From TrEMBL:
GO MF annotation: an example: deaminase activity
Origin superkingdom: Bacteria
GO cellular component entries: cytosol
Protein name (database record): Putative translation initiation inhibitor, yjg Ffamily
Length: 176
């Protein structure tokens, strides 16, 4: 065999080896790219809001979910003092009884999404008769949170609530 022919055979084998190495590197890079892309898609999917209906909670009086969750924050829809077992039952008499029912309804929703009152970071309270009902509502409200640190809170007077309720309360909670 002459030198030219042996060089050609060697060059051909070298090109084959280089092509295989190139294909292996390309396959590895493509696999890595697809794995990273899939992880990013899964991360994006996990960041989409999650909307929850809790079977044990009172039926909503409007078109909304009991809770919405995004990035570990859970927003509980405002609850009024409806009976979770009978939506058409009359509302409790007096703001103290209504506040108790509302807080119990919110606890049902919290439990339904795997949380407790300890996870609540913010509360909004709406009263139809602010001056008359503020102290009575506070007495009941305080009994649910003490001796724990109290969440941030806003309490406002409003001109009316659905089903002529005296009080509506909503929560914002944070997953640990």
């Amino acid at each position: 065999m002459n030198v030219k022919m042996s060089r050609a055979i060697f060059a051909s084998k070298r090109r084959t080896w280089q092509t295989r190495a190139f294909l292996r590197a390309l396959t590895f890079r493509l696999f890595r790219f697809l794995t990273i892309r899939q992880a990013r898609q899964e991360e994006t999917m996990s960041q989409l809001p999650k909307f929850t209906m809790v079977d044990a909670a009172p039926a909503p009086v409007g078109p909304f979910s009991h809770a919405a969750e995004a990035d570990g924050w859970v927003f509980l829809t405002g609850q009024i003092p409806t009976d979770p077992n009978d939506d058409h039952a009359p509302l409790s008499e007096g703001v103290a009884a209504q506040t108790r029912r509302v807080m119990d309804n919110l606890i049902i929703v919290l439990n339904g999404v795997g949380l407790r009152l300890d996870n609540v970071v913010s509360v909004r309270i709406f009263l139809t008769e602010f001056k008359r009902d503020y102290d009575a509502m506070n007495a009941v409200y305080r009994s649910y949170f003490l001796p724990k640190p109290l969440p941030a809170r806003t309490c406002v007077g409003v001109t009316g609530l659905v089903r002529d309720a005296f009080v509506e309360i909503d929560f914002v909670a944070k997953r640990p």
